[in-house]
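Could you help me review a protein record that somebody else here produced? Do not assume that whoever made the record got everything right. The record follows directly below this note.
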Amino acid sequence: MNNKKMYNLFLVSLVVLVYLLVTTGLYVFQRSLLYHPMENNYSGDKLTVKIEKIKIMTEDNIDLLAWYHKKDNQNYKTILYLHGNAGSLENRIHKINHFDDMNINFLLLSWRGFNGNKGEPTEEGLYKDARSAVKWLVNQGINEENIIIYGESLGTGIATEIAQNRKFAGIILESPFTSMIAAGKSKYPIFPIKLLLKDKFESDKKIKNIKVPILVMHGEADKIVPFWMGEKIFQLANEPKYSYFSKYDDHMMDFNNDLINSIKLFIKSLN
């Protein structure tokens, strides 16, 4: 074998080795890549809405911090807000401040492993967290039919899961993805994501099982979750369905008057 062939063989072997090492790294550290509890992705807003800090116990005995705002449990709908894969409850202040202007109650839940909560986030673990929050609301005397499930980014995957074949008032999906498999493939197209991924969050397979009104919101300039995913989720959703698609919004959507009015109109349609 001449030197050129040996060199080419060495290069191929090196590429294969690097590929296998990166693939192994993606598998081992995938949850560190997916969940970012310490990331401060939005700050600077002062909390203006009155909230009560509470603890919600999950079925596997993990205490979760949540913020609860109660106006009138009997006459107003209650939003269960399921946040995304990064940051804290404080990073959602700019959103929930606007809820004070609406005739709603809300519960903003923090996931296991976030906001100082014990545990490690996983797909099944987050489903347990959300279902425990629903149970807590029901124990406050709130009928399931008066609960609106609001999912933000990663939270849309949990919202879609727990809303299947349930009689919630409605569901709001902000910056939704079709599945974590598709999202992973868009970021790492040369790797076998479907085989590697532990937490798949396959919303596109579940959305047809949601039989309540749905509002899908997404920005065309989203650089994290491609806009076509929000469009696809909307296309797959059952009627009645509504959309707020913004040309200039990135992943963290601007809670401007247009978006806020879309939420208000959706909530009004549920009464």
In short: The chain has two domains: 1-34, 48-269. DSSP finds nine helices and eight strands in the chain.
